[in-house]
Amino acid sequence: METQCQRVKLNDGHFIPILGFGTYTPEEVPKSEALEVTRFAIEVGFRHIDSAHAYRNEEQVGQAIRSKIADGTVKREDIFYTSKLWSTSLQPELVQSALEKSLKSLQLDYVDLYLIHTPVPLKPGEEILPTGEDGKLILDSVDLRHTWEALEKCKDAGLTKSIGVSNFNHKQLEKILNKPGLKYKPVCNQVECHPYLNQSKLLEFCKSHDIVLVAYGALGAQRSSKWVNPNYPILLEDPVLCAIAKKHKQTPALVALRYQIQRGVVVLAKSYNKKRIRENIQVMISGAVGRGLLSSILHKGHSLSSSQTILE
């Protein structure tokens, strides 16, 4: 089965491929690599590409997409591209210009999905993380309901086909859902989600409101020393995950990805390693792991290693 055929219907009628390619990298990785690996990801079958203004690589990602359109590998409508509104542009009057800036970098006419990247407003300006003399982030005050109205206008203007959120908890989602005069519900909520942080309650909430959960960090949290204690366990080395992978002659990464797919979660596989990119797409091509996987992993964060079963 072609990977682009395996899609989930969004609440606005559009479809999102259930497996996506994540393009975020730490600052030390040259942005030129985003061009090469995104192009490669499309060549091996990825049709869902996820990036953001804050990743500072949309120019390269857009170039990769356009090059694969130009050589006949794909058409524009084959690609599902997600961008995100950064926290310094949450003031309603800044939203459309932020999206237009991304479109200019990408040299595309529209994005398929535009998300509020985080629910934490920061001081408007060119800095991604504006800080004061004390080194602390400079916050802003914005009613996210007004930000959402500006996203709705972007959808109406044809700049994006769908709109959603990222890193929202259920209370923040409810604030949008309960907004008087709501025109479009968020189609998705993109959050960190993997067997150590399975987001089961948030997933249940999203499903009850016909909102798709999109998982980033699906192969384990970004292990930057700024964000993660280096002593924390490495997901892909977890003994239960490795045992399941060994039993089915698959990689732990494929097991982690399949776990999400079987829960109805759209999953982003991020890698700048071509061998792993090629391996990750196999989760859709081969149906890598059997149906018993979901019941084999304990649905309690940081308790995966205590699971009592490996696989049916």
TrEMBL record:
- Listed CDD domains: AKR_AKR1C1-35
- Report residues binding substrate: H117
The UniProt record lists the NADP-dependent oxidoreductase domain at 19-284
**What keywords appear on the UniProt entry?**
NADP, Oxidoreductase
Gene Ontology cellular component terms for the protein in this record: cytosol
Alphabetical list of PANTHER family matching this protein: ALDO/KETO REDUCTASE
Q: Which family does it belong to?
A: Belongs to the aldo/keto reductase family.
Per the UniProt record, the site (Lowers pKa of active site Tyr) maps to K84
UniProt name for this protein: NADP-dependent oxidoreductase domain-containing protein
